[in-house]
Amino acid sequence: MTINEAKGVYAIAVTPFHDDGRINLDGIGRLCDFYAEAGACGLTILGMMGEAQKLDAAEATEVIRRFMAHSSVPVVVGVSSPGFAPMQRLAQEAMALGAAGVMVAPSANLRTDDQIVGYYANVLDAIGSDIPLVIQDFPLAQSVVMSPAVIRRIVNDNPACAMLKHEDWPGLDKITQLRAWQADGSLRPISILCGNGGAFLDLEMARGADGAMTGYAFPEMLVDVVDRARQGDIEAAMDIFDVHLPLVRYEQQPGLGLAARKYVLHRRGVLSSEAQRRPGPELSPAGKGEVELLLKRMSRHDPRANIG
């Protein structure tokens, strides 16, 4: 299955570090096993929550190499960059190493619809029009607003556009509009996977999303919600989602949310260290106490949160 047909959960993988800031390359295999065991049907690496901006070029290539060597599911690689030259290098290296596609967010200086459409045409001209492309629509981070009409233009003009990573907020009506255009044939089919830490995943699935491309300390929950929704049982999906919503909300905190996620993954034995590479905030003792309280409360309804 190509990524334009992707359904399910593409987990945004964290990048494991040692306490001193070195990349824990040996820990990548354990991460791949964890996400596969959780039911993820794909991985996305070197995204914002993968701390890609803190890696140099050689480190980024080696991280891709390690994930590709261990992953049993398709891998999408984030290659966003202020310049096309480093984007091209990383995209072509990723594909040579076996990636299923690459993800690019719009440059933050884009303002008009024509600028946004032109930017993605230039991206594909730079990296290669045969590389499957994931459009990252995350206006809260990039300050670039892509209307449904702009997304339709980009997708229809560029056959390599295979997936939308939908992270608009509010953005539920955008999913409805895109699906309506796909139904009437004015937008060719692409996969729509949703991000934002899963904060609206239950409702996004009800609007017609194909799944999630996001991270969370319990990716099993994301898989369960998507599976129930795809089976047509939105109420069951919401029941599962509601149990985890307090921790999902906690992970929404800019910067600190990744610290919370890594703390829980460390507590679960997935990471050998909860460290982020500097600069990056750390959870205070009070913050860790709050996360522990949330885990305790979650465990009353989901035994997976009972991590000792």
From TrEMBL:
Residues at which pyruvate binds: 213
GO molecular function per UniProt: 4-hydroxy-tetrahydrodipicolinate synthase activity
GO cellular component entries: cytosol
InterPro entries: Aldolase_TIM, DapA-like
Keyword Metal-binding included in the entry's annotation: no
Highest taxon, organism lineage: Bacteria
Pfam families: DHDPS
Keywords (A to Z) from UniProt: Lyase
Family assignment from sequence similarity: Belongs to the DapA family.
The protein, known as: Dihydrodipicolinate synthase family protein
Organism field: Rhizobium lusitanum
